[in-house]
Amino acid sequence: MVLGIILAIIVVLVIAAIMLYNNLVKMRNMVDNAWAQIDVQLQRRCDLIPNLVETVKGYAAHESGTLEKVIAARSAVTNATTPEAKMEADNALSGTLKSLFAVSEAYPELKANANFQQLQSQLADTEDKISYMRQSFNDTVMKYNTAIQTFPAVLFAGMFGFFKERSSFDAQAGAEVAPKVTF
């Protein structure tokens, strides 16, 4: 009788551990998937930028400093190897794109160019998707981090290899300030 109760308790604990492990795996995979979705949109933006830069070059050739910064920031995003490095590079790219669009305001013929308008629209759409995916990623990271820190999962998380918290996608300091362009 006592042996049966002990055996039942062990079975329940094993089942609970399996369920906790499976839940943590599922949450870790959700975080990885959320990051992959951001990465897809970042790549889409990086693919659009060379066309946008070439369009702007034709109208604002003397704005080469701004264009070079955009190209360098795009290259940094493309060359980043870790999610954290990509997050940092992406924040820099967002700032340079704001400067590029601020420059475009000074050139009415550029703003009227259909190719520029189409690229700007596609880039704005992509920026909206990136923003949404960042929010989704941060929500998923929060759920994962909460899951590995709360009881009873915290007892097993380290043992199962889930002891590392994930970083959220934070806005760059000063991102709330519009770029200042002077001529």
Summary, kept brief:
With 183 residues, this protein is an all-alpha fold.
What can you see in these coordinates?
The chain has one domain (13-156): Up-down Bundle (de novo design (two linked rop proteins)). The model is unreliable at 175-183 (pLDDT under 50). The N and C termini lie far apart (88 Å). The longest helix has 58 residues, at 2-59. The chain has helices at 2-59, 64-79, 83-104, 108-111, 114-149, 153-157. α1 (2-59) packs antiparallel against α2 (64-79), α1 (2-59) runs antiparallel to α5 and α2 (64-79) runs antiparallel to α3. It is mainly alpha-helical. It contains six helices and no strands.
Number of domains: 1
Q: Please state the average pLDDT score.
A: 82
CATH secondary-structure class: Mainly Alpha
Query: Structural class, from helix and strand content?
Result: mainly alpha
CATH architecture: Up-down Bundle
| Overall strand count | 0
Shape: rod-shaped
Q: What is the CATH topology classification name?
A: de novo design (two linked rop proteins)
**Residue fraction in strands:** under 5%
Radius of gyration: 24 Å
What would CATH call the homologous superfamily?
A: LemA-like domain
Along the chain, the helix and strand elements come as: HHHHHH
Unreliable spans are 175-183
Distance between the termini: 88 Å
- Residues in helices, as a percent range: over 70%
Number of helices: 6
GO cellular component, one term: membrane
Family: Belongs to the LemA family.
Membrane topology: Single-pass membrane protein
Organism: Slackia isoflavoniconvertens
